[in-house]
Amino acid sequence: MVKNDRWIIEMAEKGMIAPFDRNQVRKGVISYGVSSYGYDMRLFDEFKVFDAKGNAVIDPKNFDKTHFVDFKGDVCTMPANSYVLGRSLEYFKIPRDVLVICLGKSTYARSGIIVNVTPLEPEWEGYITISISNTAPVPAKLYSNEGLAQLIFVSDSEYALELVDKFGEQIEIYKVGLELFTSAGPKIVQGIHKRKKKVFLDLKLHDIPNTAAKAAVAATRLGVFMFNVHASGGLDMMKMCRDSVVELCLKENLPKPKILGVTVLTSMSQDVLKAEIGIQHSLNTHVRHLSALALKAGLDGVVASGHEVSKIKNHCGKGFIIVTPGIRPSWYPPDDQHRTMTPKQALREGADYIVMGRSVLNHSDPLKAVELISLEMLTV
Fold it and tell me: Which residue among 202, 220, 288, 300 is the active-site one?
C-alpha cells in the first residue's frame, strides 16, 4: 500500500525525514516537499562530476576515482552525455516495515536528465547518494537546494509477519503499536491471528467517551486479546469503553478482550509530569490514582512501569493485571525511556506481562535476543 501525505507528515515529525517541509514548495524552484502520495527530496550543493579522460575504459570492479571532479555550488553544469553523483539534502530514517522507491522528477526527465531509480530498504538510514545522467548532446544544469526526485513509501507488513514466523513457539502474544497499525491497518492483526497468535493492540485510545467507545468496539471485533485506553481520559471514557465492549460480546457471542488503562508513559519523568503536564503530586501518587480509577471503571488492569507494580498490586489487588513496558535487558544501552527495568526485576515486582520491542527488533539477530532475554527471566 502506498502511503499518503498524512502518514508521511506524521512519520517525518517523528524523525523519518530531516530537514522536512510539510508543504509542496513550487514558486520559483523545482518543486520539493510533501505531495499527495510521496515526498520530493532536494539536491545538496556538493557534486562529483564525471570527467572522462582520453579513451579511458570504465571498470566497475576497479573504478578510478580520479575520473570525478568535485564541485560545490548552487548550479552544477553536467557535460553532455555524462553523469554526476549527488546526494539528498535530507537525512532519512526508513521505518522497519516500509520500502521506499526513489524516482526522478518529470521536470528533469523532459530535459533528458535521468535520475537513477533507487530503492531504500526497511530500516535504512542516511543521505541518499544518487546517480544523475545527462542523456542530451549538450550540457545541462542541476539546481541544488531544489527538488530532484520523488520518494514513494510502500508499507511492508510482511516483515512483521516474517518475524512472527521466525519466533515460532517462543512468543505467544504480539504487540501491535501505533506505528505498525497506522502503516499496515487491521490486516496485520488478521495476519498474526492466522498464525494462531494473540494480539495486544497498543493504540492508547484517548478521546471523548463516545468516540473512544466506538474504537474499543472496533478493536473487539478484530478479535484482539488485549487493548488499552488512556486512564487520563477519565472515568466516563473508560467505563463507556468497557460497557460497550461487554454489551457487544454478549450480543454477538464474542470473546471479551482484556481492557487496560495506560497510567503514565515510561518516557515521562517526575519533572516532566510536574513542569509540563501540571500534575503537582508525585508520579507514584498519580499512577496509583489512575490505577484506582481504571479499577473503578471496571477495566481488567493497567499499563505501568515496573517501578510502580508492587504499589498498584497492593492498592488494587493481586488479580488486577499489570502490563509493564520499558523493559530493557541488562545488555541493552540507555535510550529515551526514563523508568525502565530489566525482565528479571519486573517479574520480581509482580508484573503479569512485560512488553519488549526495541531490544529484540534492534538486535542484529532478533531470535538470539529472545533467547538471551529468556535466560534472564529464567533466573528470577
Answer: 202
DSSP string for 275-332: HTS---S-HHHHHHHHHHHHHHTT-SEEE--GGGHHHHHHHH-TTSEEEE--B--TTS
In 10 A of CB 175, how many CB atoms? 16
**Catalytic-residue membership of 204:** yes
58 and 164, same domain (yes or no): no
Of the residues 93, 96, 175, 274, only one is catalytic, namely: 175
Per the annotation, the verdict on 93 as an active-site residue is no
Range of the domain at 222: 158-378
Q: What is the CATH number of the domain that holds 99?
A: 2.70.40.10
Active site residue 105: no
Residues 204 and 89 in one domain: no
Domain boundary among 88, 121, 155: 155
Q: Which of 266, 324, 340, 342 is catalytic?
A: 266
> Residue 200: in which H helix or E strand, if any?
strand 198-205
Catalytic one among 3, 42, 48, 204?
204
Q: Tell whether 133 and 252 lie within a shared domain.
A: no
Kindly state whether residues 139 and 184 are assigned to the same domain: no
DSSP annotation string for 136-163: SSS-EEEETTSEEEEEEEEE-THHHHHH
What is Dmax (Cα atoms) for the chain? 84
Please say if 202 is a catalytic residue.
yes
Q: Are residues 33 and 79 in the same domain?
A: yes
Clarify whether 87 is annotated catalytic: no
207 is catalytic: yes
Q: Which pLDDT tens digits describe the chain residue by residue (380 residues)?
A: 788 898 899 999 999 999 999 989 999 999 999 998 899 999 999 999 998 776 678 888 888 888 899 999 999 999 999 999 999 999 999 987 788 999 999 999 999 999 998 889 888 999 999 999 999 999 999 999 999 999 999 876 777 888 899 899 999 999 999 988 987 889 999 999 999 999 999 999 999 999 999 999 999 999 999 999 999 999 999 999 999 999 999 999 999 999 999 999 988 888 888 899 899 899 999 999 999 999 999 999 999 999 999 999 999 999 999 999 988 888 877 666 677 888 889 999 999 999 988 788 777 788 888 888 888 887 65
For residues 165 and 136, state if they share a domain.
Answer: no
Do residue 289 and residue 143 come from a single domain?
A: no
Which residue of the set 96, 182, 198, 207 is catalytic? 207
CATH code, 240: 3.20.20.70
